[in-house]
Predict the structure of Antitoxin.
Amino acid sequence: MKEYAIPNAAPNTVSSKQFQNHFGEYVDLVKANTPITITRYGRPAVLMINYADGIEAYQLLARKRAVEILQQLKPAQNIPTQDELDQMIDDERRYL
């Protein structure tokens, strides 16, 4: 898997108005692997990256979140063995 250095801000930052007025040009840049930060009221609002990188980033985020959830789970305790389960079933059948 590739590793990338992620700068604090994408080098190509445009206002939402600029983006609207030059949509096609910015889409072409993004398709050519140039990320673009779109600002709204002077603050970063959207980061556009090409589709393949976006899918990869989304999958990495999903994996990271899954690992975090799994790490929060407490290990199960007192799990019966197969023999103990068989014995419990036999005991229950006697009462039926």
